[in-house]
Specification:
Helices cover 34% and strands 14% of the residues. The radius of gyration is 18 Å and the shape is globular. The protein has a 7-stranded mixed sheet with strand order 3-2-1-4-6-5-7, with helices on both faces. The two termini are 23 Å apart. The chain has 8 helices and 7 strands; from the N terminus they run E-H-E-H-E-H-E-H-E-H-E-H-H-E-H. It is α/β, with parallel strands linked by helices.
């Protein structure tokens, strides 16, 4: 991939993030090769869209909340419309709206995709202060990805991802709700894409252990389970005789699930 001809578009799904969206946009603008930032205001009840527009982002608004997957799809569609004819499509960088000043720390995700080392890179975040939970949703996601593809990612629920347009298209249609990242990982690996986890020094608003946090994690568990079960029913998996030996996996290295490709 010719880095002199490729740029990066940052897509930020946002709901009620008026306090942090501007600083996230300003920080994301400093990521190398970024020339477009698209914020999808997913039914906010505050003034997120005005704050994002004032910070220089291209803003698209859903009048009602349609969920993260729909926001990502809307943002990717806007990027495709902005890609210049005859030029390589922009890489897609999906990040959360609450990263604030740390958004620029997703920069290490770009180079492996731009160089062709990986089709999709996934940020591994440090432990977040104040985060609750017992790892049940993460464990469910990791086990499902391993069962269907052979890969055991460190942070399967991470939403900070950089990818080629081809990798993104291989995961469509995106799974609804909070199952989107788990499903995206499974679909990309089954399609033959190479994925890589990369440590990034990011901070975002943690989900606590209060009643609201418990409800959030229950919703995550439901959506991940639904996304996984839908793929099992459709036979979306890599047969064991095609898979790379799990013992050969090394954390942080590019991973392609196929030892022998059936296609």
């Amino acid at each position: 991939m010719n880095s002199s001809r490729v740029h990066v578009a940052v897509v930020i799904p946002a709901k009620d993030e008026v306090d942090l969206i501007a600083s996230t946009i300003r920080s994301a603008r400093a990521i190398p090769y970024v020339d477009l930032i698209v914020v999808v205001d997913d039914g906010s009840t505050d003034d997120t869209q005005s704050a994002a527009r004032a910070a220089g982002a291209t803003v698209v608004r859903h009048p009602v909340n349609r969920g993260k997957a729909s926001a990502l799809e809307t943002g990717a569609s806007v990027v495709a419309m902005r890609d210049a004819e005859g030029r390589e499509p922009r890489l897609l960088m999906f990040i959360d709206a609450d990263l604030s000043e740390t958004a620029v720390q997703t920069a290490p995700l770009v180079e492996p995709v731009m160089s062709g080392q990986a089709d999709c890179t996934i940020a591994v975040l440090p432990k977040q202060a104040g985060a609750g939970g017992h790892g049940l949703v993460t464990g469910l996601s990791r086990r499902a990805i391993s069962a269907l593809t052979g890969w055991s990612p460190t942070q399967p629920l991470s939403g900070q991802r950089c990818m080629t347009r081809e990798a993104y298209e291989s995961a469509k249609p995106l799974a609804r709700g909070w199952g989107v990242e788990t499903a995206m990982t499974i679909d990309m690996l089954v399609a033959g894409m190479t994925l890589q986890e990369i440590p990034c020094d990011l901070q975002h608003r943690p989900t606590g252990n209060d009643f609201s946090g418990q409800l959030h994690r229950a919703g995550q568990y439901r959506d991940v389970a639904l996304a996984v079960n839908m793929r099992r029913l459709r036979g979306v998996r890599i047969a064991s005789h095609y898979r790379v030996d799990p013992s050969s996996q090394r954390p942080g290295e590019p991973f392609s699930a196929y030892r022998v490709r059936p296609f």
